[in-house]
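Page header: ASSEMBLY MODEL / two components / 1186 residues total.
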Amino acid sequence: MYFKERTHTCGELRESNIGEKVILNGWVDRNRDLGGVLFIDLRDRYGITQVVFEPHINAEAHQAAKNLRNEFVISVEGYVRKRPAETENPEIPTGYVDVMVEKLTILNEATTPPFQIKDDIDTHEEIRLKYRYLDLRRPKLQRNIVLRHKMYQITRKYFDENNFIEIETPVLMKSTPEGARDFLVPSRLHKGKFYALPQSPQTYKQILMVAGFDRYFQIVKCFRDEDLRADRQPEFTQIDVEMSFVDQKDIFNIVEGLMKDFFKEILNKDLQLPLPRLTFNEAMESYGSDKPDLRFDLKMVNLNSVFQKTEFKVFHDAIENSGVISGLLAPGCGDYTRNQLDVLTDFVKKLGAGGLIWMRVKEDGLEAPVAKFLSSEEKQNLINALSAKNGDLIFILSGSKLKTLNIMGALRLEMARRLDLIKADSEPKLLWVTDFPLFEWDEQTKRFYAMHHPFTSPRLEDIELMDKDPALVKARAYDLVLNGNEIAGGSIRIHNAELQAKMFKILGISEEEAKTKFGFLMNAFKYGAPPHGGIAFGFDRLAMIFAGENSIREVIAFPKTASAISLMDDSPSSVTDDQLLELHIKVRKSAHE
Amino acid sequence: MYFKERTHTCGELRESNIGEKVILNGWVDRNRDLGGVLFIDLRDRYGITQVVFEPHINAEAHQAAKNLRNEFVISVEGYVRKRPAETENPEIPTGYVDVMVEKLTILNEATTPPFQIKDDIDTHEEIRLKYRYLDLRRPKLQRNIVLRHKMYQITRKYFDENNFIEIETPVLMKSTPEGARDFLVPSRLHKGKFYALPQSPQTYKQILMVAGFDRYFQIVKCFRDEDLRADRQPEFTQIDVEMSFVDQKDIFNIVEGLMKDFFKEILNKDLQLPLPRLTFNEAMESYGSDKPDLRFDLKMVNLNSVFQKTEFKVFHDAIENSGVISGLLAPGCGDYTRNQLDVLTDFVKKLGAGGLIWMRVKEDGLEAPVAKFLSSEEKQNLINALSAKNGDLIFILSGSKLKTLNIMGALRLEMARRLDLIKADSEPKLLWVTDFPLFEWDEQTKRFYAMHHPFTSPRLEDIELMDKDPALVKARAYDLVLNGNEIAGGSIRIHNAELQAKMFKILGISEEEAKTKFGFLMNAFKYGAPPHGGIAFGFDRLAMIFAGENSIREVIAFPKTASAISLMDDSPSSVTDDQLLELHIKVRKSAHE
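Prediction written out in full:
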């Protein structure tokens, strides 16, 4: 159990150390016997150093080393030497030296791992998650976790330097209005009562503004008991920010400064500020998405004016019903086969489109099933509107506005994929999307819902519209979008009691309901609430993008599966009835019990 | 709703700003009408600035200002001027200027607060907690929260600079062996199964060592569903640390460096390193506590040798039964009245002592009820052993060792309080307590328990004692003690399967039980666990001490009461039966249900 502690890490030795007596501790990464001389790659998180066992240097150590297998933990003592010519490894910083071992101590043995400890292994993710402690030894995951560490530090340093105060908000709190997705925690001391885990610290950060903290931030765990979805986690991490006495521009300035730091320190890129901004309407019209990916162009075009007086019924109806006719040019795709076009038609139909109109652009005009329904002028105007050239392909969708634009946006992404428009080295593209609608109308329940949350302020110029036509009211809400991912969202909040009451009325929340649900926040607002607003970042997603990964599980040390199970510790799990008795609860035998 | 955003904070203006046009936003802190001229102290978290309303400057603003009451939120625009002579306030940095207001906007009104927003208010803590958003406006709490913020940043900067990686461990985890104090979270997706909230990330940080992360830290929320206790919180914050390939001295070095930074940056004191160390035995013998307060001396003295051959039965029995005779000198207390001595006797009796032996030191010897049982030599040796002088008072307790020392330790603290030995400006005293017993014997269940936790390594020299006499085995466990508070505790862990098995055996944990309880950690250990150890700090307590407070609630933004209730948001609370139905649980009507 005694062991010689390392003098150096496995990533540290260089030619300047030649001749020194050193001790290394680490894991056996690789193991070769070349004619009686044993070479071992010794690994720790700092790197790999080759250590050498020769029988004539220390017969005992050499003999013991024969028993070493991958992932054994050892301590070696020996001298640093220059590697013989031709055996150097310029790929790693320690590759010009090795350590001739004089003394070996086996600190721990290791069973054969279920998969090799190296990148790009072909192992089912379930096995990787079950043996996460081995998975985490892989260089890529080590890099991801270190990147995440770096992002924490950049974030906190930035906010600290900008006079923000880090404040911890409770994890055991009151069940919130979105209660259906709350994780609940039964109270032992108070029978029949429950805490809830926060879906976000929203109310607390607003309370902190009432308390005068002025600039608050926190990197904080949040919880949502959602249904199975591919890339969600029941617990996730947020960068949470709130500021007082500010308007949207102040939030933007602060956030843009943080993004500049991230780009510089992680990607070594100089982010140009201010960031581009699109309104929700502009984003939908041009990209068919409220989180447009601007790494490629492929803009959609509104064709309503082209077909204003058309006799083609489909387009005519769309315009008549305040809908939209949206066009997308696929450059050089005029030679797509009928089969390829059928596949794309199926693609949009699955998303709810009635069909997909396509036209091949030829030297002598448009070739398409619907061509005969369009006038020559319309065809020419269409070609002009899309700047279409011979050999291109035109797609058109029409129908109710948001739905049609959304489907065209999906087709835009699909075409980008087919045309390979997003390269590994594409410049990352950040932008703000602003002026979201304040309300969403729900057809099923025939009522308005808050698109963001009920404390989001309308644009001041839209306040009078609230009574007349709530659907037209825009919010002081904004999203930050990176490469087509929403990475942050926030709003300026309502701090005025009268306006808040109006908001609740439109949302169909009675005074009593508001009191039950938001009582303590509403109470706080009575004692002098400053104008305030904020934003929250999805930290896991942000880390995923900066790490160049496609799943947030690759940047979380101990993630759960899509069905919220931890395969490593096998939670959730059964507990004893004694435990449940203490908590005054029991598991129902059936829904009717 | 439109408002003029501040150009300066309320703590910013100086004489160099005189003549500038400025805008301030803040809360009305104080409100005086001096012969038609209104003076308002405007407050934000940066400070207070006096703003002045004179009717001849802007009649409208002056008129509106008459309606201002405390805690209204306002925006004022005006000119900075030098305060007239004699009206300056040298107590505050802005006290040489004020702002002559030209324009006033009321951003929000405020109901009269239930207590005044100032320090040292005489309000019941329940009211303060209910209206925490107002309580948090008080200067002291603002300072405490900012101090806490500073401590977070110092901590992370330090560990980052020392190559530690910050890693988030799960909040939704498997119920642990100490399950009885786990908060449980029912799973919606998996009927009848539960997550547990972590009492500490202990297993995960050990897993991270197996994963090769080598140096881990995290500031992390932990949870314990304990019974009512004055200064505990159901959720509390830990600085959690673990290191690989280390021994105790390496942990000490890292921790001492952090404490040096804290002392420098918070108290502006140069902490002398290395910190003093006491073994558990030394601490108990001299201070009667495993967390001795060294801000004052008042050392206890072992008197067994003095009374080795005594005929005084009480002392004789103590020695005979391997117990202890412990003495404490109370300097200058020889004039304590019989009544005072009775009170102290009651004090130790309540703690379980049979009685308290006291002796007044007089010029001509010892005056005490028990004096007649002692020989002259014993009396003289006693006086020598305690360096007692005329006018002093001697206390003696005897009996079984740990119990007697503990009670004497409590008496030592009580005497320090009575003698006023701890001054507000006493030097803070930090020390390590080491070599704790590995096991505690429980008389009730007649078995050994792990004093720290079952993964704590014994001292290597004590391993063979484990079979012979477990009670004598010392652990490689250590506590960091500040001013008599345990602020951190940790240990070197067992990384060897054989030793771990022996440990479980002594603790009466069967192989099967170990597998159920610690299965995934034991599995991980099979794949190459490095030697490792760590420590965890109670962050709330540490912040409390640095803030000079007596309750951790004073350094937590939103604390719960001793009965785990949040008075502000009224949690825990009832939830709807629909919510419980979704979670497949119901509240028991009775314990028999």
